Amino acid sequence: MAVGLGGLNVHAALRMTAVDAEVERAVLAGIRQVVVVGAGYDSRAWRLEALRGASVVEVDRPATQRRKRAAMADLTPLADVQFVAADLAEDSLLLALAPTSWDRQRPTLWVWEAVVPYLDDSAVRSTATGLAELSAPGSRLVTTFAHPIGGGGLAGAFVEGGARLVFEALGEPLRSSYDDWDITALVTEAGFEDPVVTGASEWARAVGQDAPRLVFAAERLVTAARR
Q: What domain of life (predicted)?
């Protein structure tokens, strides 16, 4: 099954574990409010003990949130979860957060997972800049992004094009990808500092497993701070 899915299930599990570790590290360091941007079916507020009693604001499109809330209705979260229905392609994040307990004067952990690859470069840059502008000193950004998988040349272009066709067939076309240098430059230009990039090899090593070697391993994680 792992091969049939191109390593997607293995990769997704490793990515989730890596992001979990970053969330736990930030919360244990003293950040007590988390904003999940493009939350989808993120379950951390229900399962991470480190988030017990923390404030978690989940932001996503109204239709997605309705499905999420219905699916989670019988479960009790560990965190204080607040839902914000917003489409950040059209809505202001600051205005969307206004009715919640989110406090702009306190450090925020921004979790932006499995969203960037589906945004074009302009949207990625504007959102990253917006998050930095809303960040009090001590805030942190945790986001995943697509790394170019082809390795250059004609063969690389063929592999890259094939991967894009797969995602288009799944209804989730890839619109952006960055190498490590570009993503660190992007988040730095947005206003964050000290970016660190990791990928499937590092995530797997942290849990004593082998990294997936297929196309989905091209997704990577960048963390950065707001000083």
A: Bacteria
Length of the chain: 227
The number of domains in the chain is: 1
- Which amino acid is located at 39 in the chain? A
- DSSP for 145-203 reads EEPP-S-SHHHHHHHHHHHHHHHHHTT--------HHHHHHHHHHHT-EEEEEE-HHHH
At residue 11, the pLDDT reads 83
Q: What is the pLDDT of residue 206?
A: 93
Q: What stretch of H or E contains 57?
A: strand 55-60
Domain housing 45:
8-225
CB atoms within 10 A of CB 80: 17
Percent share of the chain, pLDDT over 90: 74
Between helices 121-133 and 180-190, what is the axis angle to 10°?
40
Q: Is the dihedral of CA 42, 43, 48, 50 positive or negative?
A: positive
Buried b / exposed e over 20-45, threshold 16 CB at 10 Å, is ebbbeebbeeebbbbbbbbbbebebb
64 within a domain of the structure (yes/no): yes
* Residue 181 domain flag: yes
CATH code for the domain in which residue 69 is found: 3.40.50.150
Any idea what DSSP says for residue 212? P
